[in-house]
């Protein structure tokens, strides 16, 4: 999903494009009863989702797709059913969800399909509440994720060409599909499951580095047993480049104009229009102004789409949270790391509450489709807890003697190429570079500090434990004062945070993190580095350390770990954490990574799900 930072009026070009749309001649009457077109009612199944003229049919009956996107990996598993029931209650008949390769295979050959990554249970649950499913299995899914959902270990190959038929990429895709597609096959419509359609890749027209690639992905799906309806999805300008023969082209809302519908007509004739990504807002980046929803424009667009017999998918119905380090970055006129909340102007808030737009949609679907409105589900209870006092801390420098042995290297090594994680490199977190300097002078990066960010965030530079400054995309040099190296040879330390790889664009092949080349002192490259991988995973946080916590009697300056205890009664509830007076960092609760906070905004609080808490003390 491309990040839309502007939403101009009339972006769908509906009002002035109705004459063109009329050529599609929609056969569907919105008042037609779809109540019985649900997974539980359709026991004897034959042909599934098909195109007949300018309409979709499901097993021969006219079918208007009214879908909403929810990402299982952005919602606590304990709340999956609640969010799906709210999707159904609003009047939607279909769930759209994406499968992130990087979360399911974080290390090559190591697959995870349990707990919050159990997408099979999520899809089965959707069927139980009466929803069909459109599945987007990738391999690239975008969705504002780190590297668009591709695993970072792919970038260990210096010649890697992502999203192409380059052998190194297709070999990895084949192994991944061999593992994941059989799980999808058993959930298809023809086998009694709720999956009625699969999306082939995502917005490839805007990338288009290899003419053979999309055909390869299509074949990879079909030969592994995918038999449901296939579709592609592209923005209005890129429909032809992303199109596949005998696969329906669907539209993302960006760059739509009158000619978009002419293009659809020319490449696939008289066929239904599916607005595969209709979004009310856009994702916020750190240091930007928050975006708001124009509910009047929203409802006007939807009414016009229904009048033209469009099917639609609302991205996002419920956005959820970029827990941990899953969030990616955008690249517009500058690098823009995404905030932790994935609220996205969704119809449900980050913690699952109804918005006014949800109620407006529900009323509209009820009046247009004749769907009875069920009673509102009770809200999930929230709580406000007493402020947490971080009574103890330990600096990063205190912890370092107890970390795993650093990697010794003549030159700097980027995160992805570190010999850690069973040869898979480092995906996320922080990385620390150390080398001894023997002279003062000008320290320069020549663009080799890869992580950049809003408001001078990048590589924090220290001499021993004294902070020197920041190196990033806009600041590529610092001065090391002579007095700081006069009597001893201090250790130069550069601490780099991976703020999220680009989620989309032509430059994703370059998204290696940390130091991607030499650092120079007086134009001479520095050598003999010690490199510490600080990935902040559970194993890193739960390592056996001596009791080196210090009382937090004053405001510590520099990188450090802080410990606080959140106490509560027998029934923990959802809450939000406000990091008032703090600058930048990551919050962990009971070993779970809630995500990043940063005082430059716009996000001021982090969502803390009640199921992640337990009675008594929570660290």
From TrEMBL:
PROSITE patterns named in the record: GLYCOSYL_HYDROL_F35
UniProt cross-references to InterPro entries, sorted A to Z: B-gal_1-like, BetaGal1-like_ABD1, BetaGal_gal-bd, Galactose-bd-like_sf, GH, Gly_Hdrlase_35_cat, Glyco_hydro_35_CS, Glycoside_Hdrlase_35
Domain Glycoside hydrolase 35 catalytic residues, every copy: 55-365
Record keywords: Glycosidase, Hydrolase
Gene3D superfamilies with a match to the protein in the record: Galactose-binding domain-like (2.60.120.260), Glycosidases (3.20.20.80)
Enzyme Commission identifier(s): 3.2.1.23
Domain Beta-galactosidase 1-like first all-beta, residue spans: 425-535
Hydrolase listed as a keyword: yes
Primary enzyme class: hydrolase
MF GO annotations: beta-galactosidase activity
Gene Ontology biological process terms from the UniProt entry: carbohydrate metabolic process
Name assigned to this protein: Beta-galactosidase
Source organism per UniProt: Odobenus rosmarus divergens
UniProt gene name: LOC101382301
């Amino acid at each position: 999903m491309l990040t839309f930072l502007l939403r101009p009026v009339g972006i769908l070009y509906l009002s002035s494009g109705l004459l063109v749309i009329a050529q599609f001649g929609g056969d569907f009457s919105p008042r037609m009863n779809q109540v019985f077109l649900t997974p539980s009612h359709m026991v004897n199944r034959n042909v599934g989702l098909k195109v007949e003229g300018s309409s979709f049919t499901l097993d021969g009956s006219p079918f208007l797709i009214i879908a909403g996107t929810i990402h299982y990996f952005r919602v606590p598993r304990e709340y999956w059913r609640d969010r799906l029931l709210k999707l159904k209650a609003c009047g939607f008949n279909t769930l759209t969800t994406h499968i992130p390769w990087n979360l399911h295979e974080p290390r090559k050959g190591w697959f995870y399909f349990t707990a919050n990554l159990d997408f099979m249970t999520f899809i089965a649950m959707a069927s139980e509440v009466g929803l069909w499913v459109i599945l987007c299995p990738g391999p690239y899914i975008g969705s504002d994720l780190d590297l668009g959902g591709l695993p970072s270990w792919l970038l260990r190959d210096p010649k890697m060409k992502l999203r192409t038929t380059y052998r190194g990429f297709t070999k990895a895709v084949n192994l991944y599909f061999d593992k994941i597609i059989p799980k999808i096959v058993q959930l298809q419509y023809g086998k009694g499951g709720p999956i009625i359609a699969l999306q082939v890749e995502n917005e490839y027209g805007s990338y288009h580095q290899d003419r053979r690639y999309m055909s390869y992905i299509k074949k990879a799906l079909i030969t592994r047993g995918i038999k449901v309806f296939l579709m592609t999805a592209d923005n209005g300008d890129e429909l032809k480049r992303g199109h596949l023969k005998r696969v329906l082209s669907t539209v993302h809302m960006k760059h739509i104009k009158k000619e978009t519908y002419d293009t659809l007509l020319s490449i696939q004739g008289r066929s239904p229009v599916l607005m595969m990504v209709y979004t009310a807002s856009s994702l916020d980046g750190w240091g930007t102004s928050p975006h708001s929803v124009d509910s009047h424009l929203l409802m006007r667009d939807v009414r016009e789409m229904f009048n033209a017999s469009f099917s639609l998918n609302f991205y996002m119905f419920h956005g959820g949270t970029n827990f941990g380090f899953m969030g990616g970055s955008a690249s517009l006129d500058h690098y823009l790391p995404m905030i932790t909340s994935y609220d996205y102007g969704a119809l449900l808030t980050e913690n699952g509450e109804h918005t006014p737009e949800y109620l407006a949609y529900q009323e509209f679907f009820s009046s247009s489709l004749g769907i009875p409105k069920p009673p509102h589900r009770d809200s999930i209870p929230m709580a406000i807890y007493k402020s947490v006092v971080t009574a103890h801390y330990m600096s990063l420098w205190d912890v370092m003697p107890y970390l795993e042995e650093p990697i010794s290297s003549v030159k700097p090594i980027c995160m992805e190429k570190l010999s850690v994680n069973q040869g898979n490199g480092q995906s996320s977190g922080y990385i620390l570079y150390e080398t001894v300097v023997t002279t003062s002078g000008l320290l320069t990066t020549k663009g080799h500090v890869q992580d950049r960010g809003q408001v001078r965030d990048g590589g924090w530079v220290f001499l021993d434990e004294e902070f020197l400054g920041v190196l990033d995309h806009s600041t590529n040099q610092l001065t090391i004062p002579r007095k700081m190296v006069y009597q001893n040879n201090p250790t130069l330390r550069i601490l780099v945070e991976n703020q999220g790889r680009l989620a989309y664009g032509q430059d994703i092949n370059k998204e290696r993190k940390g130091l991607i080349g030499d650092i120079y002192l007086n134009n001479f490259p520095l050598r003999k580095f010690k490199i510490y991988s600080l990935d902040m995973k559970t194993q890193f946080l739960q390592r056996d350390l001596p009791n080196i916590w210090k009382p937090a009697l004053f405001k510590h300056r520099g990188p450090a770990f802080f410990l606080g205890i959140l106490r509560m009664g027998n029934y923990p509830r959802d809450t939000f954490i406000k990091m008032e007076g703090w600058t930048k960092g990551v919050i962990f609760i009971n070993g779970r990574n809630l995500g990043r906070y940063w005082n430059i905004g716009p996000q001021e609080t982090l969502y803390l799900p009640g199921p992640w808490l337990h009675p008594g003390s929570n660290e």
